[in-house]
Write a structure and sequence with these properties.
This protein is mainly alpha-helical. The chain is 71% helix and 0% strand. The protein is built from 13 helices and no strands. The longest helix is centred in the last third of the chain and has 25 residues, at 226-250. The chain is globular and about 60 Å long. The chain crosses the membrane at residues 7-32.
């Protein structure tokens, strides 16, 4: 058990406490015999003492994003009243692609415990937004829409749950609709991705592209590690594709 908590502690910062830490403690207790949430809390106390002695730690680490993702994913997957295997497979595949098989397997052990616990999305999001950058929160939202789309049938409950999470994370409606449009085909999807309407002038289209390219540039999440830069590149490519589509339509 010691090695497992050391693995956690090595990659966690702000999530090693609060409602996210409580969910992690519950998850560990669900698959480790004789381990209680109180013991995990003691691990948290010991780890926080180490952090206070290390002035150079960053506020948000790669593991913070990882744990935030696991907790929010469990909330979205359960929002339609069932747990779909395709959604679970999406989470596992995404984690393998980002972190490698060994780390992903450890994370998924946690996930199987976290998904059994009732978690307050609002409390978790308050903890996240106090410590995580806006660019990282946008990345979380992007992944959650991917989960909702994984079973090829998006329910209104799933969309509304992600909308609530978006609000709790202080992500505005325009950003929410922009990321949502990256996953759902519609006649005006390219315009929604750039946060403009079809009535926008050619100059407004160009300005919107420059603004969105800056907002979603992969460098914004570079502090979280290369594994998260790869995910950010997907969003960035969606912005570029939307702009190219509009240019082609307008003959720009």
């Amino acid at each position: 058990m010691g090695n497992f908590t050391k693995w956690l502690g090595a990659g966690l910062g702000f999530t090693f406490g609060g409602p996210i830490g409580a969910a992690i403690g519950f998850a560990i207790g669900s698959f480790v015999d004789g381990f209680s949430e109180d013991e995990f809390k003691q691990e948290q106390i010991d780890y926080k003492k180490e952090r206070r002695n290390n002035r150079n730690h960053s506020n948000t680490k790669s593991g913070d994003f990882e744990m935030s993702l696991l907790v929010l994913s469990s909330i979205v997957i359960k929002s339609d009243g069932r747990i779909d295997q395709r959604e679970l497979d999406f989470v596992r595949t995404h984690f393998v692609n980002m972190y490698g098989k060994e780390r992903a397997n450890s994370a998924f052990k946690l996930f199987n415990g976290i998904i059994k616990k009732q978690i307050s999305a609002r409390q978790v999001c308050i903890q996240i937004r106090e410590h995580m950058s806006h660019a990282s929160r946008l990345q979380l939202l992007h992944f959650l829409f991917g989960i909702a789309k994984a079973d090829e049938f998006v329910t209104e409950n799933e969309v509304e749950e992600i909308r609530k999470i978006s609000g709790y994370l202080y992500i505005n409606q325009n950003d929410f609709e922009s990321i949502k449009a990256m996953f759902y085909n519609s006649s005006d999807a390219a315009y929604k991705i750039l946060e403009i309407t079809k009535s926008a002038t050619d100059e407004e289209v160009k300005k919107a592209y420059r603004r969105m390219a800056k907002k979603y540039h992969p460098d914004k999440v570079q502090d979280l590690g290369e594994e998260h830069v790869k995910g950010a590149k997907e969003k960035f490519q969606n912005i570029q594709s939307a702009y190219e589509k509009i240019k082609k339509e307008r003959g720009l």
